[in-house]
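Lab notebook, design round three. We kept the backbone fixed and only want residue identities now. Task for the bench partner: fill in a sequence for the structure below.
Input structure tokens:
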């Protein structure tokens, strides 16, 4: 009964906060998709944090801690901390251009800056294709959590449907303003409750020092720099650091948040605070995953991603476990709502308006966006029905797909006379290489010990540079 009360209270509170924004809304694309570009520092910071910290941050990090060990934390914590730099370098330029030109989607900026509708569609397609599997992690995580919390009384897929339904309601009704304000609530909850989870489980194990000692005696590799089975070579460590820096600003739900601040100050504040939160918060699920070897020494595969709720069930009273899992629900719901809104915005503006209804009224645009939110949520649930691979495996592939876009975005924001064809080739070659590595068509030796993201992005960037050099030479000849 306590579990259901906590879950019900949280879902109702999220709905209440989201729906409350309806009183201040006008029915325009700028309002529905971007909250009229009037978001302040506190709300922007929390919506960036909440949007990025997904089911992967709670369940995936704990699962990785179980499989790899404590070394997963500095790679993830400090690697993600550096994202604050790329947020500002990219975010500030995006904010300036969005304010000046009225851009709403990432693809609109790319098309205007580089002058190619073909590039716009390719850029859009990559964002949609790689957001869908990452979006799917959220209902998967929700299903796992509710199934564990209720001892199977709410089956996995029923739980996934329930949480998706709640998210769809407040996003459907309130758009970006609802998403941003619920992110404040969800961001605070996930941060506080993750710390509660760590301290509560540690107390049951005799304290943090004792828990670490016991886990070390059981499997010393958990505390080595390379991790279990020497998972982290120096090249792989560097690869993951690069992966987060290049990919996170490319998430459509993150990219679109660069448009919404009222001034540049919120971006500066977020760039400073973001690293502090990641380094403080990410240690918690990783440590819990490491300690998972104490009661559950032989977990493998997808089951490892459920070690956090399993540890809560094993070592905490029901009411604490339920309370903490509300934080995990907040993490995944705050990402799911942003992904649904971002994808529906892009499909509405970059496909429906551009190619089917150029003269669509403002009300029609928001209506189409709402319909697409429902459709995308259903697609996510269909994929989640039979969850594939581990959270880390899914996220790594999706993140690499996004990272391929990084050179094109830098070219659009900071380049001059960029040849759009070079950007098209850059993206197509990069994504083809990702598929080649994933299907073992391209030998793993071609990564030279790094993750595929390093050689792929290097080649993608080189293509743009060489394309621009050739264009510059032609211009000089003509002169």
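Proposed sequence:
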């Amino acid at each position: 009964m306590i579990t259901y009360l906590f879950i019900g209270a949280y879902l109702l509170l999220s709905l209440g906060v989201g729906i409350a924004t309806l009183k201040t809304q006008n029915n325009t694309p700028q309002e529905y998709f971007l909250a009229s570009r009037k978001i302040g520092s506190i709300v922007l910071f929390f919506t960036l944090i909440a949007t990025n910290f997904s089911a992967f941050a709670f369940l995936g990090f704990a699962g990785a801690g179980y499989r790899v060990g404590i070394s997963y934390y500095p790679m993830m914590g400090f690697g993600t901390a550096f994202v604050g730099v790329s947020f500002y370098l990219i975010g500030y330029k995006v904010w300036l251009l969005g304010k000046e030109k009225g851009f709403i989607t990432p693809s609109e900026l790319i098309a205007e800056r580089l002058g190619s509708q073909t590039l716009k569609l390719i850029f859009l397609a990559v964002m949609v294709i790689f957001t869908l599997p990452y979006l799917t992690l959220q209902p998967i995580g929700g299903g796992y959590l509710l199934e564990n919390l209720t001892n199977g009384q709410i089956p996995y897929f029923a739980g996934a449907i329930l949480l998706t339904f709640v998210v769809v309601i407040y996003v459907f009704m309130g758009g970006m303003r609802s998403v941003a304000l619920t992110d404040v609530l969800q961001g605070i909850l996930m941060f506080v409750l993750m710390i509660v989870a760590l301290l509560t489980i540690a107390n049951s194990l005799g304290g943090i020092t004792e828990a670490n000692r016991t886990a070390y005696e059981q499997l010393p590799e958990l505390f080595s720099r390379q991790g279990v089975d020497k998972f982290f070579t120096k090249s792989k460590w560097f690869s993951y650091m690069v992966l987060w820096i290049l990919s996170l600003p490319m998430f459509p739900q993150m990219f679109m948040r660069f448009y919404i601040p009222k001034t540049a100050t919120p971006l500066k504040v977020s760039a400073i605070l973001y690293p502090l939160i990641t380094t403080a918060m990410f240690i918690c699920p990783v440590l819990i995953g490491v300690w998972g070897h104490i009661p559950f020494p032989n977990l493998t595969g997808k089951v490892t991603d459920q070690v956090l709720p399993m540890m809560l069930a094993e070592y905490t009273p029901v009411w604490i476990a339920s309370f903490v899992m509300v934080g995990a629900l907040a993490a995944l719901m705050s990402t799911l709502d942003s992904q649904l809104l971002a994808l529906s915005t892009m499909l509405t503006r970059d496909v429906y308006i551009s190619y089917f209804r150029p003269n669509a009224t403002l009300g029609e645009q928001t209506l189409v966006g709402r319909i697409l939110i429902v459709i995308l949520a259903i697609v996510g649930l269909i994929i989640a029905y039979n969850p594939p691979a581990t959270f880390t495996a899914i996220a790594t592939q999706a993140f690499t797909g996004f990272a391929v876009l990084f050179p094109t975005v830098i070219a659009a924001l900071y380049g001059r006379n960029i040849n759009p064809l070079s950007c098209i080739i850059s993206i197509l070659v990069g994504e083809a290489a990702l598929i080649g590595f994933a299907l073992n068509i391209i030998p793993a030796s071609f990564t030279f010990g790094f993750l595929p993201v390093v050689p792929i992005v290097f080649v993608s960037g080189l293509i743009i540079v060489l394309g621009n050099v050739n264009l510059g030479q032609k211009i000089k000849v003509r002169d």
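Keep this in mind before ordering anything: Confidence is low (pLDDT under 50) at residues 472-479.
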